[in-house]
Amino acid sequence: MIKDIENKIHTQIPMTKLMQLELKSMDNISLITTAPLHINVNDKGTAFGGSLSSITIISSWCIAYYLSEKLNLEKSSIVIVKNETKFLRPVRSDIVCTTYIPKDEEINILESKLEEKNSGTIKIHAQIIEDKEICVDFRGTYYIKKM
Hints:
Elements: H1 2-12, H2 15-18, E1 22-26, E2 30-35, H3 49-70, E3 76-87, E4 95-100, H4 104-117, E5 119-130, E6 133-146
Antiparallel strand pairs: 1-2, 2-4, 3-6, 4-5, 5-6
């Protein structure tokens, strides 16, 4: 499943391929995505804030897409409608993003909204952690609409 999602984002969001964003693994708790520092570096030798922001937004979009597939939506439109990103520490090595799958209760609420209104929102949380320190903390709200 994650290779299908990776192919989708590399095809439909070309910058993800240029950033060398990879979907490494997924379990029932989280999705791990990575990108090399040397492609996403700034003038200080640390990860570029725009890359960090993009990686958390796109990784969270991947979770929203995964949920739409899990809920058997044949076609859907997924967009981010709100986010907050805290840049807490510089990232000095290859970027590793952990994006958390929402709790079952939240997924059930989304499913109910999709059944009732053909659309709904879900909040997704992602973090970039380096040396056991949170460097980036992201929270986004994604709107999913049945097509």
